[in-house]
Amino acid sequence: MAEAKKAMAEAKKAIAEQKLKELRRKMDADFDKYLADTIARQKKEPAPEVEETDEEWEERLDKLMRHPAFAKEVDFSKPLHPAMEGLMRLKYEDEDPTARAESFKDDGNEEFKKKKYDVAIDNYTEAIKCECPDRQLNAVLYSNRAAAQYFQGNYRSAMHDCIFARKFNSTHMKAITKGAQCCMEMKRYNEVDRWCSAGLMMEPTNEKLLEMRLKAAKLLKGQERDQRKEDSKDRQEQAKEMKLIREIQSRGIQLAGLKLTDSKIHPSLLTNLEVPNAGNAKVHVDTDNKLVWPVLFMYPEHTQTDYVEAFREDVRFIDHIENMFGAHVEPAPWDTDKKYKQDTIQVYFEDKEKETLYEVDSNATLNQVLSHKRFIVQFGTPSFILLIKGSRCQSNFLKSYKNVKSAS
Asked: pLDDT tens digits for 63-88?
């Protein structure tokens, strides 16, 4: 059986060599025809009146040498010259998939040597698409493409190619080594150990794999130590957040997605305390054990907002309004009519569920309003609507709600 396989392999090799010879003959014939046509055209052209100088002769020779048949490199980023396209077609139109795959592989290897890894990858990919029956050749193709992907920094793709290479040949050492290197670059040190162990089963004294496995073991210990520290830090932060939420709940304040009666708080609910696009501002407890909130004031008439980063729970609304719109303060740039005064502003909060607007007493403290049974803090940022008393905007705005009630 083994002799029959060997004979079949030798027969395929002989066929491939014969086809390569035919290919060379076709290319030689094509080039001979080109030269013959060039000479024939020159004979028809009138002879130059003066003898060519050395520079002119070299220029004509250089023009001749630009023919695709003399090209040392091919720029695949541009459309191919018709002659070059013909030559490439002759080269790759072999009926035998193994011969085609070999041709693409050889070109890929040449591009790899020039460090043109993207072109090399394209060639190896085309070779793989040939679906040749040679398992060893397929292992080489995937391994070579993995190496090119590795030098491009595509470690995940390179590792996948190493896996495929080993499906065709489980003992392919280059694929094993490159797979270990990819895992090392991705900091997947447990997997580095598995790849190295697979190679060391075949080559127990392989220095490269031994060194890599030792390095991965050291790095894994450091990684696990760092992860323990990070987990401990996360636990501490979570405990801190849970304490803060309990502090908020103790004041009868409701957070979106979290009821006062909830006995368990899922960590994902802590995101309710994150303030979008507000830097580091976040509700916290100060040294006097008072909650300090970031608060949003909205002005629908001008589609403007103010962001108060620190609104202590025992401070009244009128105190902040006076600081922002008092007689001693310049009007906001958008308040062209200078209507926003501490005595003309009315504050509201909305209950979206019941489509109700609640009127807030400016002399009330922030905590008195936040503890209202219908107030729900969204995203850790209490928000309020400010309108001018008796204005047309106020009248139209109130009409958009089913009910308008006092929060007192």
From this structure: 544 545 445 455 555 555 554 554 45
Q: Which one-letter amino acid corresponds to residue 3? A: E
Residues 214 and 294 both lie in one domain? no
Q: Checking DSSP bridges between strand 403-406 and strand 383-388, what pairing results, if any?
A: unpaired
The structure tokens 């303030």 sit at 275
Residue 147 forms part of a structural domain: yes
Q: Sign of the C-alpha dihedral, residues 248, 253, 255, 261? A: positive
For residue 207, tell me if it sits in a domain.
yes
CA distance 278 to 295: 10
* Segments forming the whole domain that contains residue 314: 267-406
Give the number of domains in the chain.
Answer: 2
Token representation of residue 73: 């490199």
The token duo for 4 is 């029959």
Q: How many CB atoms lie within 10 A of CB 20?
A: 15
- C-alpha pair distances (Å), 80 with each of 38, 72, 76, 284, 329: 21, 14, 7, 67, 73
Nearest to 281 by CA among 310, 303, 322: 310
Q: What is the pTM of this model?
A: 0.50
Domain assignment of residue 92, yes or no? no
Yes or no: say if 247 and 291 are a contact pair by the CB < 8 Å rule.
Answer: yes
Can you give the pLDDT at residue 31?
60
Query: If residue 383 lies in a helix (H) or strand (E), which one and from where to where?
Result: strand 383-388
- Cα separation, 307 vs 329, in Å, equals 17
